[in-house]
Structures are given as structure tokens and as C-alpha cells.
Amino acid sequence: MKTVFSSYEAILLFKPNYSPEQLYLLAFYYAKRLKSFGANNIIIRYRGKRRLTYPIHDNTIGDYVQLRFSIIPKNLNPYLELIKLDEKLLRSFLLRVDTSTKL
């Protein structure tokens, strides 16, 4: 049986009280955890500090980090539980990326 990997893009919105170096360490932590769940082709991008449209937990600014990776869909649940429990995150967004279309 062939193992089918799906590509995903996760946007993590962190509280604004972390330096860029700390954010990279947090992003590498998530990448390492994704790797332990069987993900590959992990790409991390720091998207910067941005003003939020509306306050989230009394924060009007947040730091965005983008993670792109491929993983077997059934292995995604532990990652979702991990980000759900993290108090450093204001919000997270996960999108399945269609790899057949080229930009």
C-alpha cells in the first residue's frame, strides 16, 4: 500500500512579547515536533509583526510564523492538539495546499 502525504500550510499567530530569535526557536520547536509526527519538507518563514484587525486576548499586535510541510493526514491530530494547548499562541490556522496547481 502506498503512503499518501498531503501538503499543509500553518499560520501561527504568537503573542507580541517575543523577540524574533525566540520566535525562531518556537518555530523550530514546532518543526521538530512535526518531524516526530512523520512530517517532511518543512519550511519555516517569519512573516513579521502585524497589527490585528481586532484585539485577541487584549493583544492588538501579533507575530506571524508560517510553516509549510507534508504529512500523512492521520498523523496531523497530535500536532493540532499541541497547538491548541499552547498558551504562547493567540490563533492558528491550518490549510491543506493543493500541490497540483503551480503559482
Features:
4 strands; Alpha-Beta Plaits; 47% strand; 103 residues; 4-stranded antiparallel beta sheet; alpha+beta
Secondary structure layout plus pairing:
Blueprint (H helix, E strand, L loop, with lengths): L5 E9 L5 H17 L3 E17 L2 E13 L5 H9 L3 E9 L6
Antiparallel strand pairs: 1-3, 1-4, 2-3
GO molecular function: rRNA binding; structural constituent of ribosome
Keywords: Plastid, Ribonucleoprotein, Ribosomal protein
Protein name: Ribosomal protein S6
Description of the structure:
This protein has 103 residues and is of the alpha+beta class. It has a single domain (6-97), classed as Alpha-Beta Plaits (2-Layer Sandwich). It has two helices and four strands; from the N terminus they run βαββαβ. The chain has helices at 20-36, 77-85, and strands at 6-14, 40-56, 59-71, 89-97. A four-stranded antiparallel beta sheet has the order 2-3-1-4. Strand 2 (40-56) and strand 3 (59-71) form a beta hairpin. The radius of gyration is 14 Å and the shape is elongated. The termini are far apart. The model has no long low-confidence stretch (mean pLDDT 91).
